[in-house]
Design goal:
This protein has about 210 residues and is an alpha+beta fold. The protein has 4 helices and 12 strands. The longest helix has 8 residues.
């Protein structure tokens, strides 16, 4: 059966449920492989001075080009690799996607501390072969303690949140750095908020300072 939407917008359609589900089905993905030597070669491009734009991190991510309308290794999962150099401490940051880390080389710890304080009781120590997790929106920072570089593999549900247009992050930590992957800075959800409100309630959201 075919319906019309002549009184609505041209880009809006009335459709039966089965047809809608058919549109949701992703194409089959061919089995894939990303060669370890190529990953290491790509990561070797990043040095202490050579990082992605002006931030603290460097690294590569793996993309399956059979995907449509998304990017990553699968429709909902991304896998990335990052080298962290001896003596480096990556600044505290948080995001609403989970981070599962496999530590390939080196030693160090991840501090999972919502107050952004590096303290012993919130450290998770790791070495080569370990797997750790920083749950969604947990404030975390990585610190290298070994004399050799660290190689990290990270698994995220980042593509799924981006597809839903809901990915957010504070990078580095701080409500003034809250970002939305579509709209940029997230405005306050309540126009009654003041800077004093934010300080008293530790509300992790940016104020909208534009007056109309």
């Amino acid at each position: 059966m075919k319906w019309t939407n002549k009184n609505g917008y041209d880009w809006c359609e009335v459709l039966d449920i089965d047809s809608m589900v058919g549109r949701l089905i992703q194409p089959d993905l061919r089995p894939g492989k990303w060669a370890g030597e190529d990953i290491r070669k790509a990561m070797g491009f990043f040095t202490k001075e050579n990082r992605r734009h002006g931030d603290q991190r460097r690294g590569v991510t793996l993309v399956h080009n059979d995907l449509t309308g998304s990017a990553g290794m699968s429709p909902g999962i991304s896998v990335s690799f990052q080298p962290i150099l001896p003596g480096e401490k990556l600044a505290f940051h948080r995001h609403n996607y989970v981070a599962i880390y496999y530590w390939i080389e080196g030693e160090g710890y991840t501090c999972n501390d919502d107050e952004g304080i590096d303290r012993e009781e919130t450290r998770v120590y790791w070495k080569a072969g370990d797997v750790t997790i920083s749950p969604a929106w947990v404030n975390h920072a990585h610190v290298v303690t070994s004399k050799e570089p660290v190689m990290q593999m990270a698994i995220h549900d980042f593509p799924e949140l981006c597809y839903r247009r809901v990915m957010m992050s504070e990078d580095p930590d701080g409500h003034e750095n809250l970002r939305h992957m579509v709209k940029g800075v997230v405005p306050s959800f309540n126009n009654l908020d003041t800077l004093e409100d934010l300080e008293e309630r530790s509300q992790k959201i940016s104020l909208s300072t534009t007056t109309k």
